[in-house]
């Protein structure tokens, strides 16, 4: 059974698989890339901002 969370971009419900891992990136049907945050039995979503390069500076 999948859990649901709210897309922070469009506000629609998103079904999140039970076996999703914290930090996993999923794509929502609105086109948003979302980072899954798992806290115990709760799941929340954050908009994925992309990877910033850090060349050791």
Report on this model:
The chain has about 55 residues and is mainly β. The chain has a single domain (about 5-45), classed as Rubrerythrin, domain 2 (Single Sheet). Helix content is about 0%, strand content about 40%. The chain has no helices and five strands. The chain has strands at about 5, 15, 25, 35-40, 40-45. Strand 1 (about 5) and strand 2 (about 15) form a beta hairpin. The N and C termini lie far apart (about 45 Å). The relative contact order is 0.26.
Topology:
Layout: E1 3-6, E2 13-16, E3 25-27, E4 33-39, E5 42-47
Antiparallel strand pairs: 1-2, 3-4, 4-5
Task: Spell out the key features of this protein.
Rubrerythrin, domain 2; mainly beta; 57 residues; three-stranded antiparallel beta sheet; two-stranded antiparallel sheet
The assigned CATH architecture is Single Sheet
| Number of helices, where a helix is a run of at least 4 consecutive DSSP H or I residues | 0
The end-to-end span amounts to 45 Å
Report the sheet-strand fraction.
35-45%
CATH class: Mainly Beta
Main β-sheet: number of strands, strand sense, barrel status?
A: 3 strands, antiparallel
């Amino acid at each position: 059974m999948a859990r649901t969370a709210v897309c922070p971009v469009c506000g629609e419900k998103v079904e999140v698989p039970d076996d999703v891992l914290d930090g996993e990136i999923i794509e929502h049907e609105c086109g948003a890339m979302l980072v899954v945050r798992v806290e115990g039995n709760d799941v929340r979503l954050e908009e994925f901002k992309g990877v910033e390069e850090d060349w050791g500076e």
